[in-house]
Write a structure and sequence with these properties.
With 269 residues, the protein is an alpha/beta fold. The chain folds into two domains: 229 residues, Rossmann fold (3-Layer(aba) Sandwich); 30 residues, no CATH class. Helices cover 41% and strands 16% of the residues. The protein has nine helices and eight strands. An eight-stranded mixed β-sheet has the order 3-2-1-4-5-6-7-8, with helices on both faces. Strand 2, helix 2 and strand 3 form a beta-alpha-beta unit. The longest helix is centred in the middle third of the chain and has 29 residues. The protein starts with 9 loop residues before the first strand and ends with a helix.
Amino acid sequence: MNKIDLNGRCAVVTGGAQGFGRAIAERFVTSGAKVAIWDHDLPFAEKTAKEIGPNVTAFKVDVSDLAAVEATRDATLKAFGKIDILVNNAGIAGINKTVWETDLDEWRKVLRINLDGPFICCKAIAPSMIKQGYGRMVLTTSGRAMRVEDSVPGLVAYSTAKMAQVGLMVGLAAELSDAGIRCNAVSPVAATRVLRRRAPELRPELVAPGVAFLASAACPVSGLVLTAAGGRFAAARWTPGREVDFGSSPASVDDIAARWDEIAGTMRR
């Protein structure tokens, strides 16, 4: 039996028409929430809303357009009366080019959707959450951005924007810590419009429960990344390794080189 629910909560899920966003919206509805799907493809979003249930409303919006987001926020508040949860899921894939091959307009497009969009949505919705003294924000990062071992060539713009969302999350968590608002991020491995590979372990519904927890009143923390893949979850946050003290005088480069294994050893697994 699920003891944690979202009854009475109103949620915005950007990019919620399909893929991971749809799985999140469905999980929220199952948990008792009303959901506003914000998506650039209104016909698809309306189709999804109809399929999920009567407590889902679709809105067409470009999340990188501040005026459009503010208008959609106002329409959502008019329809629901409040916004308790914001999930910044909307995003586009990388452009599969090296840094030196990437056109500046291509670079800016990826950052506009994957970074400006979450910033604009948080900026637009935060004041109403502050006013009501409650809110949950979830950003979406990626393992592609956080570890060289998980990255692949051609995704520099995508990785940059996704890692920048971690910085946005940390900043929001600090700014909103006294306002009753929690801000965290999810790093999912799931079949979506971005990750098109299909496999049973990549079903987005295996990741969605973790997002539902971050979006619930039961979530007590801010500023962490929930990694999620195939029903496996782990919490991650940046922590420094053990310091190597060279004293009050400037160390020589040779000193650092001589003790490099000790300095870097705390980062190894």
